[in-house]
Amino acid sequence: MKVSVVVPVYNTEKYLRRCLDSLVNQTLKDIEIIVINDKSPDNSKLILDEYEKKFKSKIKVFHNKTNKGIGYNRNLGIKKAAGEYIAFVDSDDWVNETMYEKMYDKAKKDNLDLVICNFHKMLEKENDELEEIEPDYKLKYFEDTVLKDKPELLLEVNLAPWNKLYKKELLSEVEFPEKLKYEDAIVVVKAMERAKKIGMVDEKLNYYLVRNKSETTVMDKKVYDILEITKMIIKELKKHDYYDDIKAYVEAMTIRNLFRYTLQQKYQKDKKIRNDFIDKVFNYLNDEFPNWKSNEIWKQRNFLKRIIEGSKVLTKIYCWLP
After folding, report:
1. Mean pLDDT, the chain, as a whole number?
2. Cβ of 284: how many Cβ atoms within 10 Å?
3. Which positions ≥6 away from 129 have C-beta within 8 Å?
4. CA dist 271 to 222, 257, 262, 267, 320, Å?
5. Fewest C-beta atoms under 10 Å: which of 60, 74, 138, 263?
6. CB 148 within 8 A of CB 39
7. Where are the alpha helices (H) located in the chain, listed in sequence order?
């Protein structure tokens, strides 16, 4: 088996057929689709039963008896995977029909542990129409490399698992945290720092959907998890003797990632959580990177945005304004 694609499913009946159709019609034929139904209360099970029956040789469906969460589902998918390489797809997203053939061919041709491609970011509008918008991350083409030699990848690669192809061995002893939100970021970083060679297919092959009521846009107390995930990432990177050489990039990545969530507290309904989270982010940055305001990479950011996000007081004012 060349590629195993892991697809966790929960409450996505509206999008599930589009996702599965994009997978069963892949030009790469030696592929298995591992679907984990996470006790979805909608009609996803009926759709999965239909596809499993129709595509017996390609689709394997596993049903959780209780809701376990996306981290558990991805970990289960890794354990069940028979492929030489593993990929992940969210069940509301979809992929180009040539994606895995192109990614696999690149991996084999250049003996890569990790392959990354670009993606379309699609905004779901009120009338279900889709509009392509600019992604937060713009990955420039790069020759095959390793993280030590190209630490810019920490800033350029999106920390989501779905536009990547991983050699199965790369994910051995790597698990998605099952109790934390933003669990995919630590796995992507672990994959990058463990990979002996990373390469890129310079095409947009994945379609990432931003839903109207996406979980990732909801602000609640789970926002604190980003701090725990950030601590895990830095602890992992500090294990390497080249950490000091890439520290400026680690610092810039941390600043950017955390400030993304401080500014999102504008939509946080609980004012106590909002203010406490902002305080904790600034305390963490001051403790871990005492000179973070002098980071030359972060200082390249838009001046006004940098002034607001770099000030705890201004951040709170911005989040307080209607």
Report:
1. 95
2. 16
3. none
4. 14, 21, 12, 10, 9
5. 138
6. no
7. 13-24, 44-54, 70-80, 99-110, 153-156, 184-194, 225-237, 243-264, 271-288, 303-309, 312-320
DSSP 161-224: STTEEEEGGGGTT----SSSSSTHHHHHHHHHHH-S-EEEEEEEEEEEEE-TT-GGG--SGGGG
Single out the residue of 96, 174, 111 nearest to residue 146, CA to CA: 111
Overall pTM surpassing 0.90 (yes/no)? yes
CA dist 106 → 23, 24, 320 (Å) = 19, 21, 48
Question: Which of the following CATH numbers is that of domain 3-216: 3.40.50.300, 3.40.190.10, 3.90.550.10, 3.40.50.1970?
Answer: 3.90.550.10
pLDDT digits (tens, 9 = 90+) for 220-236: 889 999 999 999 999 99
Asked if pLDDT for residue 92 goes beyond 50, the answer is yes
Residues of the chain with CATH 3.90.550.10: 3-216
322 band by pLDDT with thresholds 50, 70 and 90? confident
